[in-house]
Write a structure and sequence with these properties.
The structure is a single chain. This protein has helices spanning about 1-5, 10-15, 45-50, 65-80, 90-100, 120-130, 145-155, 175-185, 200, 235-250, 255-265, 270-290, 305-315, 330-340, 370-375, 390-405; strands at about 80-85, 115, 140, 160-165, 190-195, 210-215, 230-235, 295, 320-325, 355-360, 380-385. The strands form two sheets. A seven-stranded mixed β-sheet has the order 1-7-6-5-4-2-3, with helices on both faces. Strands 8-9-11-10 form a four-stranded antiparallel β-sheet, covered by helices on one side. Helices cover about 40% and strands about 15% of the residues. With about 400 residues, it is of the alpha/beta class. α6 (about 120-130) links the parallel β2 (about 115) and β3. The radius of gyration is 23 Å and the shape is globular. The chain has two domains: about 60-265, Aspartate Aminotransferase, domain 2 (3-Layer(aba) Sandwich), CATH 3.40.640.10; about 270-405, Aspartate Aminotransferase, domain 1. It has 16 helices and eleven strands. The protein binds pyridoxal-5'-phosphate. Pyridoxal-5'-phosphate binds near residues 89, 218 and 228.
Amino acid sequence: MQDAQSQWSLLTRLVHEGERKPVSDVVPTTTPIYTSATYLHPSGAALDIAFEGAAAYVYGRYGNPTLTALEQAITVAEGGVSAVAFGSGMAALHVAILAAGTPRGQTHPQLRSILAARDLYGATTTLLQEFFASQGVQVTYCDMCDVAAVNAAIDANNPDVVLVESMSNPLLKIVDIAELVQLTRAAGARLIVDATMTTPILHRPLTLGADVVVHSATKYLGGHADATGGIAAARTGLVGDTMRRYSKLLGAILGPFEAQLITRGIKTLALRMRQQCANAAIIAAWLEEQPEVAHVYYPGLTLHPQHDLATQSFDGLFGAMVAFELHNGGKEALFRFVDALQLILPATSLGDIYSLVSLPIISSHRDLTPEQRAERAISDRLVRLSIGIEDVNDILADLRRGLEVKG
Ligand code: PLP
């Protein structure tokens, strides 16, 4: 090889020179960003083995070392056996549902019935409707906080998959994961928990027996509004392997640059979460006192219907999301409130270091029908805040500014 290379013309050498130098005994402190779309193996036989599924890298759509670092961090954080990183939270949810709906011994999903929480991120409901219900899968929604209702819905619908959010978007309802695990298992179904809002810092659904935990890594895991991604971790090898296989086929893999940013974000997740939750608790208590505010949704408030459950479940934290309803609603009033803010950004996301405001009626739940929104109490008086790491006094002053203009 070396001999032949020295004979190559300048034209050929410009293409190949400097590439493929193995890093011998030098170990970088952080995992580099592997942009290579292909990986070389020492022989045809070695490549054959790699294709067979040995733990080696072959092709960019299957994985790369930068992704592996992120997947390993989440596997450990969630207490699972494996994790798969995706290009977005929606891709992670899609594959998680397909994998959870694949019976043992089968190589393809056999979904007949999905039982989902009525309170879900709007696009998740749309995914269930447009990709599953439209294909003949029966999709039923119920209030996952009401155990009797869940029991009845399981009996009536015999679901293959049960899907919930650990803290619902945007009304911050809390579900009892341990209880749902029991009900789901008794029905022979698998439980998927979207834990985007809580992160492994508040709780770890796999350790309670959930089958898959999904995150929009765009949110708290990344945390800096600079990477879109998703991740799904599995409790069992069977479901984890199935997610990996479907990920390869559907190709919704996370890019290496984003993987590196999200891995870096995870290193400060605990610090950010604690600061953001502390700020949110102060803000929720303050909002409760404001005359312009009709109702505050925050699991840390004693009036929150699942306050006790949140206290038991979340390790003393209550999350960093706060939602509230204004006394005087209507889109125009909501817009006046948002337009008056100077610190809190009107960006349609959550979990960033920056404080964000969103209006579910025009953003996360826009695609729902008016009836679906009414059933879920998503009104034109509802404001959702994602509290950042800024000085809480500056956030409070900004909220006062918004309420005054509005009032
Ligand atoms: N799950 C929840 C709870 C979300 O809030 C979101 C997005 O806002 C998603 C999933 C989808 O994530 P992504 O936007 O990364 O696809």
